[in-house]
Structure formats: structure tokens, C-alpha cells
Design goal:
2 domains
């Protein structure tokens, strides 16, 4: 069972009001986690830049390995 989750048996015994309150609290937890992830924009920008560099290096390596011998 994951942290904060309940069993199916417990869910089935809960009243509709309890279920609504539980869903509401889960949505607040999800929103809080997403806000934390979205607040780290500089991390995403850095990772995107590094991905661009890696992709560029891979393209040059592929060119040198595969296409350069055909041109010469």
C-alpha cells in the first residue's frame, strides 16, 4: 500500500462525505507536489540545454561515423 493511500475495503465502508473529503485532500496533495515541481524551472531549462548538447554531439558523431566515409 502506498503512503497515504487506503485499501479498497476501507473505501467501500466510507460514507459519501468521507469519500469526498478524502478526494479533496488527495487533490490538495497532488496540487502541492505539482507546484513544487513547476517552481524549479531553472532545473528544467538546464536539463533541456544539456539534452541539446548531447543531441548535437550525437548528430556530429553519427555524421563522422556514417556519412563522412561516403563523401570521401
Amino acid at each position: 500500500m502506498a503512503e497515504g493511500m487506503i485499501d479498497k475495503e476501507i473505501w467501500q465502508t466510507m460514507s459519501p462525505e468521507q469519500k469526498d473529503e478524502l478526494v479533496f485532500h488527495y487533490l490538495i496533495r497532488i496540487d502541492t507536489r505539482l507546484q513544487g515541481i513547476e517552481s524549479r524551472r531553472w532545473v528544467h531549462a538546464a536539463l533541456q540545454s544539456m539534452g541539446g548538447v548531447v543531441g548535437g554531439v550525437a548528430a556530429v558523431a553519427a555524421y563522422l561515423k556514417l556519412l563522412a566515409p561516403l563523401i570521401r
